[in-house]
Amino acid sequence: MFDKIKVYAFVGPSGTGKSYRAQMVAGEKDTHFIIDDGLLINDNKVIAGKSAKKAVTKIETVKKALFLNEEEKKEIQKAIKKYKVKSILILGTSDGMVEKIAENLNLPKISETIYITDVATEEEMKTARNIRVTEGKHVIPVPTFEIKKDFSGYLLDPLQIFKSKGLGQKPYISEKSIIRPTFSYMGNFTISDSVFRQIAEIHAERMPEIYKVLKTRVQNYGEGPIIYMEVSVVYGFNIQESLKEFKKNIIEDIENLTAMNVVKLDVVAKSVYIEKVNQ
């Protein structure tokens, strides 16, 4: 099925800057598709897969990166077929790893391998490794907004880099995302359930259609919070439209302020408040 696809590999030890330089190497090989830690990337956009860096343990990270899960493997293969991929760059920590990824995805054998030492100096690799070890930070070659949903509850920072398309052409900005996986020894961060309640109450105060929040229940999982709310609505407003807007505002605020993906938010109108009219 993929016999005519040209496969390139980009190999280097973990933390030496492969993901940081992935788009540059792909551009030199005139390919727009990259496989990096479980993701299939087309230029600056994730088109399939879930990042291995989201895994809870290092063992799960390896499984995801190698596409050992049949469903994840089929998702990538389906995308490769859909986008009619002619060439692709696979990132890995060793020759064996990139060969295994190509084999598991039923791609042709690797035609050319580029090593990190071909494109980075010893000093650059040392700096990248030091950041990985001391700060636990990893880079993914896509903008932050592209992977936000996939990285619920993880530290996300955008990194903008000026790149040139060629001699005489204007440079353009390429964004990458810096993340910290959950298994990082740097530790996790926790957001209290009360934070979600307070965000909801702030929006209730801002909306004339909502009289007050009666009850809020939060269940916080690794994927993000599941929130159940009961509210009292003001008589005279369209309840369905009011609750829809209320939910939208809460979700946007939680995701923007906490970088956590709201898995589910249920809002129930439990009562109607009728304002007293002065006689």
Structure, described:
The chain is an alpha/beta fold and about 280 residues long. It has helices spanning about 20-30, 60-65, 70-80, 95-105, 115-120, 120-135, 145, 195-205, 240-260, and strands at about 5-10, 35, 40, 45-50, 85-90, 110-115, 140, 155-165, 170-180, 210-220, 225-235, 265-275. A hairpin with a 2-residue loop joins strand 10 (about 210-220) and strand 11. Helix 8 (about 195-205) crosses helix 9 (about 240-260). The longest helix is centred in the last third of the chain and has 20 residues, at about 240-260.
Topology:
Elements (H helix, E strand, L loop, with lengths): L5 E6 L6 H11 L4 E4 L2 E4 L2 E5 L8 H8 L4 H13 L4 E6 L2 H10 L7 E4 H4 L2 H14 L2 E3 L3 H4 L8 E9 L6 E9 L13 H14 L3 E12 L2 E11 L4 H20 L5 E10 L6
Parallel strand pairs: 1-5, 1-6, 2-5, 11-12
Antiparallel strand pairs: 2-3, 3-4, 7-9, 8-9, 10-11
Key descriptive features of the protein:
about 280 residues, alpha/beta, three-stranded antiparallel β-sheet
Task: Summarize the model shown.
By secondary structure, the chain is of the alpha/beta class. The protein is 35% helix and 30% strand.
- List the total number of helices: 9
Q: Strand portion, in percent?
A: 25-35%
Order of helices and strands: EHEEEHHEHEHHEHEEHEEHE
Unreliable segments of 5+ consecutive residues: 143-147, 152-167, 177-188
Structure summary, number of beta strands? 12
